[in-house]
Amino acid sequence: MSNNLIEMDKRHFIHPTSSIQQQQKNGAKVIMEEGDGIYLKDITGKWYLDAVSSLWNVNIGHGREELAKAAAEQMKKMAFSSAFSTFSHEPAIRLAEKIASLTPEGLNAVFFTSGGSESNDSAVKLVRHYWKIQNRSERRKIISLKRGYHGVAAASTSVTGIPEFWGMAGHMMTDFIHVDTHYNSTTDQAIASLRQAIEESGPETVAAFFAEPIQGAGGVLIPPDDYFPRIRALCDDYGILFVADEVITGFGRTGKMFGIENWDVIPDVMTFAKGVTSGYFPLGGVVVSETIHNVFKEKSLGTLFHGFTYSGHPTGAAVALKNIEIMEQGQLVENSRLMGNRLLLGLKKVKESLEIVGDVRFVGLLGAVELVEEPVSNKRFAQDQHVTLKAIEALHERGVICRGVTYDNTDIICIAPPLIINQEQVDQLVEGVYEAILKVQQQLGI
Length: 446
Ligand code: PLP
Fold this sequence. Notes:
Aspartate Aminotransferase, domain 1, seven-stranded mixed beta sheet, binds pyridoxal-5'-phosphate
């Protein structure tokens, strides 16, 4: 059974974000078949603690009967019906209203998509549309952060600030600019980099600035506390829209409903996906401010020529509503904050008894552990030592799934377990991380 599946996988399945060569040589390393709470089981019967919520998305954990039931009920009643033009349906209306009630003040109108990339592509088009219908079509440039990840569709690949992702398209689209992130730099430097890009581009040509409240795929990079307030002020000074990509940080991940709320900043636009359905259905969206919505209403040139077949999918909307209800009833946003604090404390203790742990950081249940050759000077390992790979493998052996980030000569272990994690499970995770890093140290002869 297992060999058969591996052969079929090699022959027919092109994996997302994979080395096809490696896949052909080694085959799939793990084939999952079942999920329960924070755990996943593969086809050999081995259980894993899913410490990155699969793709940072399974916020309420695996195997939730209630979501299966919500999907089945909606599918039986009306699996799908269009939300195009003048058509609508109750699940999408209710979900839009629910999301508007959760987002910061003034963000009240929602455009639905099927995921994060579509959401960011839609946001690029919507902000340009906003300027165009006010006769400001020269405002079309999009500025975003280096090490930012915003997806892989045409525009979202270009918003992404990790050059590896631009390769397949041959180049980035024009009018996308990347500026220094706050990682390993001061707020002053990061703000100066944005200001310089705006000035050099011509402020009147810039449509929007995009940023993740915490850069996820870039290595869980948490900004200094004054960063986003100063970003907001700078955008206001130049009349530029601020788009917060909440695809990872939304829906409780950081101990707040939305990540940007950690800094009391209100963006003009928010994009979301992942945690809105905890991965039980592909769904995402863009929330725009009342101001933007009013411009759309008053100055529309007619049809909004943008919409996906599955924008506002009724089954997806029903799943999202149930998912949010479970989050609220189980106080999972609060749990994310509490368990995130416990995880941070536990991993800081781990740092004390190991030699190669550098920065340990968490906001809610979104965090990372950096591995460095010398924690005091923050000297990094040579990349040919493959420290991250060794750590991820050691974790895997112990039945813990984390995500490694190695861009720009870093060794970062990202940790983002489902928001339902409890104290004992946090301690189990801390123990697993400790043992795995200890093994890496032994392999490195430390
Ligand atoms: N934005 C952020 C911050 C993400 O982390 C991701 C995916 O990981 C995306 C956008 C793209 O979302 P999707 O993979 O659903 O297209």
